[in-house]
Amino acid sequence: MSGLSLYQIDANIEALLEGYELVNPETGEIIGAEALDALQMAREEKIENTGLYIKKQTALIDAMKNEEKSISERRKVYEVQLEKLKAYLSQSLGGEKFETAKVNIFFKKNPPAAEITDASKLTSEYMREIPAKYEPDKTKIKEALKAGKAVDGAELRQTVSIYVK
Questions:
Q1: Are the C-beta atoms of 75 and 120 separated by less than 8 Å?
Q2: pLDDT tens digits for 18-65?
Q3: Which residues form the domain of 10?
Q4: Is residue 113 part of a domain?
Q5: What does the pLDDT read at residue 55?
């Protein structure tokens, strides 16, 4: 990635490093270093420019990470807003379908899910081991409840989701 940089990196080294691959994906052989070694310039200059390129790429990666974090935070704000608007529509429509030429709002039942009402009442049969802790195995509990078994501390609960297209 050429362009503005804090450092003046030799154009030959920068061009070479832009397409630099360390390992041949087919053979696993280390490649690329020979092309860098073949450049006609002093060893110190190659090393310095390669180091500057690494610093440039590190700064770029850090900027990308910060941007990802910023975008993620903004996305979360929009997701919360979206959920609140869906809740508003759900309450306003009370499960009733709404359709115009511009929007279609409808409700659809989600598959039943096991909801844990009191995990302390579940027997070990309905628990799964997660390193250093136990938690309810909702898949097993759901299967048992659907089969008509009574599972103390759990029940099947039907929920609905709203769709706006």
A1: no
A2: 665 555 667 766 566 666 666 666 677 777 777 887 888 889 899 999
A3: 1-94
A4: yes
A5: 83
> What is the rounded CA–CA span in Å between residue 157 and residue 155?
6
Whether residue 41 contacts residue 50, with contact meaning beta carbons closer than 8 Å, is answered with no
Place of tokens 């049969």: 125
Name the residue with tokens 């154009």: 11
100-118 pLDDT, tens digit per residue, is: 999 999 999 999 999 999 9
3, part of any domain = yes
Whether 154 and 76 share a structural domain: no
Q: How many CB atoms lie within 10 A of CB 46?
A: 18
Clarify whether residues 83 and 3 are in a common domain: yes
Verdict on whether the full-model pTM lies above 0.70: no
Instruction: Give, as one character, the DSSP assignment of residue 113.
Output: E
Q: Which whole-number Å values give the CA distances from 54 to 5, 46, 57, 63, 65, in the listed order?
A: 12, 12, 5, 14, 16
Residues 81 and 114 in one domain: no
* The pLDDT of residue 9: 67
